[in-house]
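Entry 0007
Protein: Alpha-tocopherol transfer protein-like
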Amino acid sequence: MGAIEWAIDEDNYECTLSEETQKLAKDELREDKNTRDQALEQMRNWIKMNPRIENCRLDGRFLLKFLRCKKFNVPMAQEATERYLLLRQVYHQAFHSLDITEPNMEELLSLGYLFAAPGRDAKGRRVIIARPGVFDPHKYTNVDMCKIHAITYETLMEDEESQVRGFVHFADGAGVSFPHLTLFTPKEAVRIVKNGERTVPMRHKEVHGINSHPSLKFALDFGLSLISDKIKNRIKIYTSLEDAINNKLDVSMMPKEYGGTIPMKEMIDLWRKEIIELRPTLLNNDKMKVRLELYSEKAREGAVSALKQGFGCSSVGSNDSSMYGITGSFRKLEVD
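Output (structure tokens):
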């Protein structure tokens, strides 16, 4: 067997965070140079020794998004990394060839279905704007929907300031109707929400929604019932933009059409440039692979029960090598 060529090889990581963000990372995530260096070493050793991981990125920027999301709890970051690699592969159509230049992706972007506003809010966070009502459920598929989300989030998560600062979401439900709900079966919806929350290494700080149609209240309630209380407490739903503004929602980061200063088309054009710049990185991620045959069928299906029990021995059988899974070689992080 020749040496593995990793999707991106390990680098000598140099911290790029601003001083202010480094302080925030220390306070909120327990991150400092010592913790980071040790955690990166543990992550890399674990990936190399894990029989289920065939290929993965070993660069600091990639591994740190899992470590930061799990506040440098290394076993949890390892589990999240492996779950991410597995689900990327299982839902191959939705998470591979993340190419914004594909016609359907370009159309959804131009419509302003999902994009990030330029710049950062007062707390240094990127603001993500979603307008699900512009998605034509008779023209596009649920794979298209998953794919444009994957392109958006993967692009944003390559930025280290955002890995620490987190994100604000703003959604306009105008135009969302019953056909949108039939894009996913309830079972698929449960899996997407549960897997998304546990797998996508994003720090969701605030979620604001306007114009949710009363006839879809049952669907909204169902969606809210699936997410953790931690996230649920960060969600605010308003009847209209006016209602949101009256309740002190800061719209300065929004497109001009929603009370901000920059027209939506201009925001979308700036966001497109950002995505295209990272397009090679997103496409290169397709080299990452796990050995599917070493996972239980439930884990492969993304069943929530299988995810809860982790990828420990239960999903592989009782042979010793499986112990490398989530419990491989930990050293306690040194505490100064």
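Curator remark: The chain has two domains: 19-90+291-324, 98-282. Confidence is low (pLDDT under 50) at residues 312-336.
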